[in-house]
């Protein structure tokens, strides 16, 4: 097999002519971490770019989830989606809380608001939804339930970098929003992440918590963690931010070709795109209905791999089916039929800014000609 390898993702890398002068400057400054110059610059630049007021950088996208729950002093049970990356549920576990899984809406892959309400108990204190693949959750319905029952809402917005509804960011929904800047994500700082909140006082608490809880030289206000973003990755992030719009435009082109070519393939389905949403094209999931398509999802996945095209079965296995969580009462398959079906049928096709037209054609011919 000598077909060129097409990976599912490929990182946006800084232009070296732009990045190296910043590295030289960091060498001159000899300030490597702890809220340095580039850290502050990236926080400012991201706040402006994303249209949010208060953002704190983190060293990855998992620690802002853990810190958000800690910052809001969440207790008891947290309602969440099983159809996500494991870090979502892990963050609940790391705070000594009980995750309660709720099924998803088949049209978006996101938490079904009606089922959220059915899962509320006296111990429920928060909801942690995910905008899976960058598809916006039903933010209004979730907020209405949260307000009625007095619950906090912390969005895992790891896939929703710069996603907008009617031209307005969704990263200010609920009480807090987290982002991941991992190398596999649309926008990356190699490893990195952020926590977005609504006021200066909360940002201050978050900034203490990501630095061991230090508030000044000699005061520790809470058992915080070390989750600081360093200067080198902050500078890398500034360089990538300059080119992220072009990268998203390239992803969009690939997504449009996929969408048009797969629209009428029996047994292959996709999420519908909404006219009022500005997407970031972070993933391109397709769902394989074995009966109609003729071969199983895993058979298609294996065939693509044989031809050097790497898809990903995101999100399979479902979080609720991992050995560590499957004993929870909410983890049963009967409680989560939609999420289980999606996990059994999904393949994310390669999606990144470096895909050529020929790459897309090769991928499409594998899916169309089974
Ligand atoms: C990537 C991801 C995370 C974790 O981010 P890291 O930066 O890898 O720690 C959390 N939630 C979701 C939904 C993700 O996809």
Task: Give descriptors for this structure.
370 residues; alpha/beta; Aspartate Aminotransferase, domain 2; Aspartate Aminotransferase, domain 1; 3-stranded antiparallel β-sheet; 13 strands; 37% helix; 14% strand; binds pyridoxal-5'-phosphate
Structure description:
The chain has 13 helices and 13 strands. By secondary structure, the protein is α/β, with parallel strands linked by helices. The chain has two domains: 16-241, Aspartate Aminotransferase, domain 2, CATH 3.40.640; 244-368, Alpha-Beta Complex (Aspartate Aminotransferase, domain 1). It has a seven-stranded mixed sheet with strand order 1-9-8-5-4-2-3, sandwiched between helices. A three-stranded antiparallel sheet has the order 7-6-11, with no helix packed on it. Helix 1 (16-29) runs antiparallel to helix 8. The longest helix has 19 residues, at 244-262. The radius of gyration is 21 Å and the shape is globular. It starts with 15 loop residues before the first helix and ends with a helix. Pyridoxal-5'-phosphate binds at residues 60-62, 84-85, 87-88, 130, 156, 158-159, 180, 182, 193.
Overall helicity: 25-40%
Residue-averaged pLDDT, rounded? 97
**C-alpha-based Rg, rounded:** 21 Å
Question: Secondary-structure element sequence?
Answer: HHEHEHEHEHEEEEEHHHEEEHHHEH
Instruction: Give the total of domains.
Output: 2
Main sheet?
7 strands, mixed
Enumerate the distinct ligands: pyridoxal-5'-phosphate
Structural class: alpha/beta
CATH superfamily of the largest domain: Type I PLP-dependent aspartate aminotransferase-like (Major domain)
- Which percent band covers the strand fraction? 5-15%
In the sheet with the most strands, the strands line up as 1-9-8-5-4-2-3
Total beta-strand segments: 13
Shape: globular
User: What's the end-to-end separation, in Å?
Assistant: 18 Å
The DSSP helix count reads 13
CATH architecture name of the largest domain: 3-Layer(aba) Sandwich
* CATH level-3 fold name of the largest domain: Aspartate Aminotransferase, domain 2
């Amino acid at each position: 097999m000598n077909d060129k390898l097409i990976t599912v993702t490929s990182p946006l890398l800084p232009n070296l002519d732009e990045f190296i002068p910043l590295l030289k400057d960091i060498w001159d400054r000899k300030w490597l971490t702890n809220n340095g110059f580039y850290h502050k610059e990236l926080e400012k630049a991201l706040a402006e770019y994303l249209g949010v007021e208060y953002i704190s950088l983190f060293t990855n996208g998992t620690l802002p989830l853990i810190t958000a729950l800690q910052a809001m002093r969440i207790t008891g049970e947290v309602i969440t989606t099983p159809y996500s990356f494991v870090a979502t549920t892990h963050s609940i576990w790391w705070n000594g809380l009980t995750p309660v899984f709720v099924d998803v809406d088949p049209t978006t892959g996101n938490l079904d608001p009606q089922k959220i309400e059915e899962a509320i108990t006296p111990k429920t204190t928060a909801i942690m939804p995910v905008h899976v693949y960058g598809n916006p959750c039903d933010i209004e319905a979730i907020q209405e339930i949260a307000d009625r029952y007095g619950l906090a809402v912390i969005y895992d917005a790891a896939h929703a970098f710069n996603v907008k509804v009617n031209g307005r960011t969704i990263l200010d929904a609920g009480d807090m929003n987290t982002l991941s800047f991992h190398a596999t994500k649309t926008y990356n700082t190699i490893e990195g992440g952020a926590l977005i909140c609504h006021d200066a006082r909360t940002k201050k608490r978050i900034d203490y918590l990501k630095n061991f809880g230090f508030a000044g030289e000699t005061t520790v206000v809470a058992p915080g963690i070390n989750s600081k973003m360093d200067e080198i990755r902050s500078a890398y992030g500034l360089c990538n931010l300059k080119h992220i719009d072009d990268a998203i435009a390239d992803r969009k082109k690939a997504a449009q070709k996929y969408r048009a070519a797969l629209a009428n393939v029996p047994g292959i389905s996709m999420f519908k795109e909404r006219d009022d949403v500005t997407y970031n094209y972070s993933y391109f999931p397709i769902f394989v209905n074995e009966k109609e398509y003729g071969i199983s999802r895993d058979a298609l996945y294996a065939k693509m791999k044989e031809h050097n095209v790497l898809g990903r079965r995101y999100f399979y296995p479902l979080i609720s089916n991992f050995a560590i969580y499957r004993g929870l009462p909410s983890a049963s398959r009967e409680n989560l039929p939609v999420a289980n079906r999606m996990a059994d049928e999904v393949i994310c096709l390669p999606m990144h800014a470096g895909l050529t037209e020929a790459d897309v054609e090769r991928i499409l011919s594998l899916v169309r000609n089974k």
